[in-house]
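cron nightly-structures :: item 1 of 1
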Amino acid sequence: MIRNCFHALTLATLSITAFESGTAHAASETLDKIRELGKITFGYREASIPFAFIGADQKPTGLSLDLCGAIADKIRAELRRPTLATEYVAVDASNRIPLLQNGTIDIECGSTTNTAERQKQVAFSVATYVASPRWLVVDQSPITDLKQLDGQTIVVTQGSLNLAGAQKTIADHKLKVTIAQAKDHAESLLMLRTGRAAAWFEDDILVAGMVANAQDPKAFRMLAATYAPTYYGLMMRKQDPEFKALVDGAIREKMASGEFGRLYAKWFEQPIPPRGQNLQLPMSDAMKLRVASPSDALMP
């Protein structure tokens, strides 16, 4: 009886506090959990450059961590808890969703693609990155346009989802192209560098990472054309629209103020730790559209 009375009193107190604060996020289960435990818990990837990885100081860093830092500030202001602690938990591709669902982490600050299938299990923030397959050629190549690939050999990494995309693009443009499949991204880049392929077709961020870590990164360039975009976002638990609104609000503010653009340049167009590589990947038109009109939609 005492326990039930205490529980009822606690709920009443929380309701009064929420009412008095007048905040739009008072009903959020995630915020209630954070308030009760006195900490925000972020999940991060250990080697997802430049979104989330371990920096030279052995602490998590990256674009997604910068955005999560802004979200933490928003939560502290929302709960009026300026000293609220932040905890970081390493996650991987297999456990990131279960650890989110069971409450181990409150947000996944990584590089997860927003898909219709994943939306059945979790919620996503507005897009934080738009990935798109791109054609990579050697810098000295005369190729500047897709039509110039007619009669050439191109390479796609074995097992890549972009094989179907390359086949469709070639068919749509009625090109006579031979498709070679390399065993991994390293071999795809090697085939391109040694002239066994005129172009490599793969997601821009993966291509940029391989080029940045190559011995001669300036020996390659991407063609301007982009295809079938996919959208990365920060993951949260489902059925907590109040918390999603807070997260989206923090990201929207960064985009509206121009700070997101500065963060993007910091991680994609400047030397980054731990090796000082520069991805040399300017913001795409598709990403610029999402910055101008933030959205979690799966279509352009």
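cron nightly-structures :: done
Residues 1-25 have pLDDT under 50 and may be disordered.
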